[in-house]
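To assess whether the prediction recovers the assembly geometry, we first specified each molecular entity separately, as shown.
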Amino acid sequence: MIETAGLTRTFGAKVAVRRLDLRVEPGTITGFLGPNGAGKSTTVKILTGMIRPTRGTATVAGFDVVKEPLEVKRRVGYVPEAGALYETLTAGEYLGMIAGLRKIPPDDARRRIREFLGLFGILDDRNRRLVEFSKGMRQKVLITAALIGNPQVLLLDEPLNGLDANAALVVKQLLRELAARGRTILFCSHILEVVERICDRIVIISEGRAVVGGRPADITAATGATSLEDAFSRLTGVRDAAEVTRDLLSALEEPSDESAAAP
Amino acid sequence: MIGRWLATLAGADPQQWRLLTRVMLRTDFRSSNALNFGTTGKKHAGRPWAILLLYGVVGIWTAMIAALFSDLLLVSAVVLLAVGMIVAMAIVLDFHSAVLSPRDYRVLSPQPLTSATYFAARITSILIYAGVIGGLVGGPGAGVFLVRHGLSAALGLALGLGGTVLWTVLAFVIAYAAMVNRIHPGRLRLALSSLQIALMSVVMGAPAFMPFLEDHLQGTDYQAGPAVFLVPWGWFAGLPPLLGGDWSLPALGGLLAGLATTALLWRHARTHISLSGARRLDNLSSAGEATRPRRRPLWLRGGSPEQQAVATLTRAQFRSDMNFRLAVLSVVPITLIYLLMAVRNGPLPNPIVQEGASPGSRLFMIHLLTSLVPLTLMDSLVRSESSSASWVFFAAPADRARLIVGSGLCVSRFFMLPYAALLAAIFLWSWGNPGHALIHAAALGLLAHLVVQLRILLTPRLPFSEGVRKGMALNQIVTMGIAALLVSIVLPLLFGLAYASSWFTAALIALLMAAAVALPRAVERSVRARVERLEFGG
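The predicted structure of the complete assembly is given in tokenized form:
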């Protein structure tokens, strides 16, 4: 279970998250959507205990993120948006470190690392340094690191970034299975088709505050939109995509003064 | 077992502490450029040859001091000063990221890890690294002590080494971490740059003070006085005489001061190193500084589009890339120190009327700078924290050879030209002859410009296209120092010949000017094929 009440986070004069009330039930996958800079990653960072809220409360798996951050971290698996890794370590060493920090018995850790890397098709690469890994391979390592401790809560910030189609399929299926086994999953993504397909609920935030929450079909219906994409566009107040496209094309095609003057 | 007990005592989780220390040592050593001597590319395994060699050379020097001088206190003070300086330099110049790393925050902050454990692992890994340096630099000296003065003196020096390493690590780690934790993020970048510039100046300016040392240490029976204990790095120097039974109040006082401040520093270090400090650094490195849009100044305009692009990029990097700014700014105090040392005994000798200057003359410092400054600047112009952004040079239809030559012209135009003007002013003050001042300053300025082009010819590299790696600063200082030394030995011979007659002088200036105009084009043609084969390394 994830629960926030009046969650607020400011960076100087900028309010990144504004009085956010959020509730994610165990056994569900909740899509957390919003335009760039809406406050998704900041919210997730607060939930992992990486940064503190300015005001409001947040509890994860029954523990307050400010008062008991270690208990929260023990129960959370996190895939960051821009995945930082110790690139000079091999994949095996990195995952071994994460398993060690989570006090997973070495034999269990080795078995889980082998199984995960095998399922992702990178077992033979486990002794290569992460600096040599492609973006997708790194993402597979980050997902393995998040899942290795079998956490109660999963906070996933763009987890499918860079994954090939097969790996993405495995991850989506895995998330559904984990949710069915009672895990709480918060899924941040910009790929609305994926969110619509795998999430039970969706929360859309804009400028730091939640603008709507509910089942994807309900949100589409309530906004009178034809699709989730359309509903998202209406709720987050962006300009009509067709109109923006027309303007972009005309900016490309219209000759500038300089080029018009050129022979 | 002892480590486990100490970790528990420090409030750390012993299992996590052991694991993290191992990881930190691995990551710090593997990412060290100094440890990758003889290998190319970032994917090779590290081999500690270069760093062993570098510290080993200093170690031999300390052993020689220990063998030559008979005074235990003097030798201990010199050895411990060398160890302290090198450890401090390693932390500030190359391993400051080992103290508080933004990457640590991103990787470790979601993990169930306490600040005490993070601190214990960080301090252990730095102490191990500093201990290796201390052993290499001071170990040979302790060996000489064993042979020359017996076991107790050698043991004293070994304990002094340990104390000095611990004190230096704690003092510099606290200083660095305190800046990160206390200074407003908007000013932190400037503060860190200033600290690094100050230390870099001490390191690179130190050789300029060698003549002073020569004046004072005449004869091997020189004896150190109690003044040694006024410097923190001298506090532990009293240990060898103390253990040898030579008790004195200043030595005892120095030792007590060393022990008391070490205990105090340890207490403070615990509160200063934490993941929240790493978070501040992370915010600093990811957010950058808010800058208001500015018009491109007039002095940036002119030249080919490639030159303008490089000039604009260099200006932007100077404003936002801490490492680049440090490298550029550090040139200023070093130049001033060398120039001041050159004129410390009054006006400089005029090589034009004195039929050239010998390598040992006071012009040596100025000749050394003629190649050291452009080489340092050229090297900094290639390295960047944001080297991955250099993909644009590889993807855009830009003339890469022109970009590279443009970076050299940028150094000549914006740095070497003002330097030559400064030299002209110093020469005018020294000689009172504007013609002579102008000729020699022009000759040196043009030579610096040629050094830049030759550097490009040897290793053409795109601006800001290579990452910054630990240990790099030390390697660069040594390599460029040797190259600059060679140039400064050859220059007086050249000037001796050229200033023998006014015809020869005119010929030299004409030759240098022709070369200055022709060389960039020739270099551009010459490196084109090699530059086309360059690949994006990010």
